[in-house]
Design a protein that fits this description.
Distance between the termini of chain A: 23 Å
Shape of chain A: globular
Helix content of chain A: 25-40%
Radius of gyration of chain A: 17 Å
Order of helices and strands of chain A: EEHEEEEEHEEHEEHEHHH
Number of strands of chain A: 12
Low-confidence stretches of chain A: 233-250
Largest sheet of chain A: 9 strands, mixed
Structural class of chain A: alpha/beta
Largest interface: A-C, 26 and 31 residues
Oligomer: homotetramer
Number of helices of chain A: 7
Chain lengths: 250, 250, 250, 250
């Protein structure tokens, strides 16, 4: 397994918080992070490629090709805002081992920029129709748990699949603080409401001055990326039988 | 595949016996070892993490997150009791290669503390209802086989899946003595009776002064851990079709 | 995973173009490249073997055995023709990781001979009957995209599976220019028409003086190789259920 | 993947032939090689273990445990007999990559003892009832092909799965001569007749003075080993659905 990070720049950051925004249930983290990148004009400083990503190319706008990848953006906070490292991407790793390696590399990058606090976002899939989606949380430590509970989140029981769970739990082993914040969602399509639900308290906690009214733009962009991955044509339940490699997309 | 051991302490042990207590059929080893840890107040001295464990986080009591892991505890025997290394955990590795690597690391730790004798425990799944469960054994060498036969165990024919079998057989290649002791069980739920059946003669053999009347406490704790892994909600046969990664849980 | 290249010769080439010709949908690239090798009398200069290829031997004419492999041929252009590196083979890698490693090695070879431009060919599977198959393209850069659009290809949306997509997209990360050219095809059998459709504009672009009237000879040879792989006996849809390792053969 | 060879002895051999005898279709190679080992009193000189073998222990006679393994035996020929290296074992590797690595290690051992000729044996599964089973062959080179054709074998078309094919084809890449000899068989149970059919001409070619009348003893021993692997209880077709790891057992 090979997972490499290529740096464009090595920014000076002041006690940054890492926000994870990879695709997952409801694309909650994906939408929220893309919105932060766009609204804050966060700057791309590193790209991550893994041989545990899909072995296909994705055609982008205007006939360009890309491989699946993860990207690191940074934002230097202004007037009291917290500095950020934003992990954005169009995929998670396809294998268990690949997920561990991916999280390891992300933590390496976080450490290099003296980040000590990790926030992962995600959706919590519910079969039934959700009228008033709730927030759930799990944390690496007491302090971060308190931060999450202060957002009105309830304590989650069970497993947290994929990078959202693994990054906080593996980070804990390496001394990071942080929490995972999940919003209830139907799960398969980009869920703007769930993204809003997670992003609002995060912005408050980090004193980020972000307008959330344009979240649907990020959701629409996410929808297009998913289409280029061929993920929105068929109901997900059916697809999953065929494409077992999308294991992280539970 | 990466499998690493992180030491908290390097205890001085006198000819310790390693007892394996990872989850498996009937959670026999899991319950028995957790009971030993609790009753003997065994001390955690090392943690093992593997990229062949599940790629999710588990939420524990009070909102904390953990990754799947294996732990090493030690007990310094008193008044004639044997020194122990107890291998406890909430998972085995998900891949064949991961299981070999896991056993290799466990044997490395055993060697470092001059352990020369390995006992693995487990359940032997029976379809029919079991009135009087029997003990079965297999061993790395004649001396250990005699030890196991002295417990009233019968010689087992067939395969021993997972770490219970592999650790004894791979240990044999590296000069360890030892045996595997299996109790008949229905298999899917924590089986206190089977755990008692294996643990009782082990305690006698190792002169361990342990009260077995509270074994159900360890079984209940095991049950809770399983719930946090989502393993107890559906009958295991059905689950196995979906979750082929739980291959070691045969 | 081990992927090794064994060189027979290290030719001096002048700004060569790499043309990828591994098996895939409609065997378009496979037929086209075999034809170029035969017509141009291109010379074998390196062989590539991977432990991610199939673990069987293939019997060839006259009782010989071969393992699955990829081969590199070169052609030194005459009177204005472009120098070529031709990648030909009877398989792609069976795993995602193997595909990444394979593409990495191919790019290593391309770099060593100062190749800066990669052309991959392929088929675009259509369920319905195709009367007038069209060409589609995706590119690493604007210049190459223009080259492909000049051939009458339309811009492709979606994913490009296997080496055809991955080689261009990973090449882009390492500074290669190039494009992927796909012809519509029914997909399962060697498709001479689709191969002709891609090869004609490629020959024009590279000023290659190649007679395309004998393309059916290359298609027939490809058909025989497929038979030796056991790939033509049953409809592919049925086979895929059984032989999931032929993942790249979508 | 880790594949290691442990040597008990490093015999002096004179231009030995390697005969491969791992389990496969009809257990032809397995029976034939075990018979040679027993009749010639061949001596064990090395053991091979791989993390791509099954992750279970096998209980042997008298309660002992073993891991799956491959063994190397040697025989120093007397009065004109050829020196032999015999590869015997109770499994092949479970993964493609593991098979490549296994063959690589076997070829390393063969090279170390200056072996230049490899014979692999196997069964060729036929659906229909076989009255007069025939021999088929494929070879690394012309000379070896001639040797095999002289035995009355016909040239095989198609693939040769597993170590039987891979060892000859990968050996060819490293300069070994040799052939693969397959006898028609029904496939699932140890087939004494097919083993006899392959072994007889091999003994003649190598001037081996071996009584083939006791081949059924080796077949019976093979049957017992299979039972300890749990392979003979259910019809193989059914088992294969459940136990996809026995991929090499096609």
């Amino acid at each position: 397994m090979v997972c490499t990070v290529h740096f464009h720049e090595r920014p000076e950051l002041n006690n940054p918080v890492l926000i994870e925004g990879l695709p997952g249930i409801g694309f909650v983290a994906n939408i929220a992070t893309l919105h932060l990148i766009q609204e804050l004009k966060a700057k791309l400083f590193a790209e991550l490629h893994s041989s545990a990503f899909q072995d296909f190319a994705i055609t982008a706008e205007q006939g360009k090709t890309n491989v699946p990848m993860n990207e690191f953006y940074y934002y230097k906070g202004q007037s009291g805002e917290r500095d950020l490292i934003l992990l954005y991407g169009n995929t998670q790793a396809l294998t268990t081992m690949g997920q561990y390696e991916l999280c390891g590399r992300v933590l390496d990058v976080a450490e290099e920029f003296r980040c000590k606090y990790i926030i992962t976002l995600g959706g919590l899939r519910r079969e039934e129709k959700i009228i008033n989606p709730k927030l759930y949380c799990a944390a690496a430590d007491k302090e971060a748990l308190k931060d999450a509970l202060n957002m009105g989140a309830e304590i989650l029981g069970g497993q947290i699949f994929g990078v959202a769970g693994l990054l906080v739990a593996l980070g804990k082993l390496r001394g990071f603080k942080g929490f995972c914040l999940l919003a209830e969602t139907a799960g398969f399509h980009p869920d703007v409401r769930a993204a809003h639900l997670t992003l609002k308290p995060i912005c408050e906690m980090l004193c980020l001055n972000v307008n959330l009214s344009r979240l649907d733009v990020a959701a629409e962009a996410t929808r297009k990326i998913l289409e280029s991955f061929g993920l929105l044509e068929a109901p997900m339940n059916e697809r999953r039988k065929e494409e077992s490699e999308f294991r992280w997309f539970v």
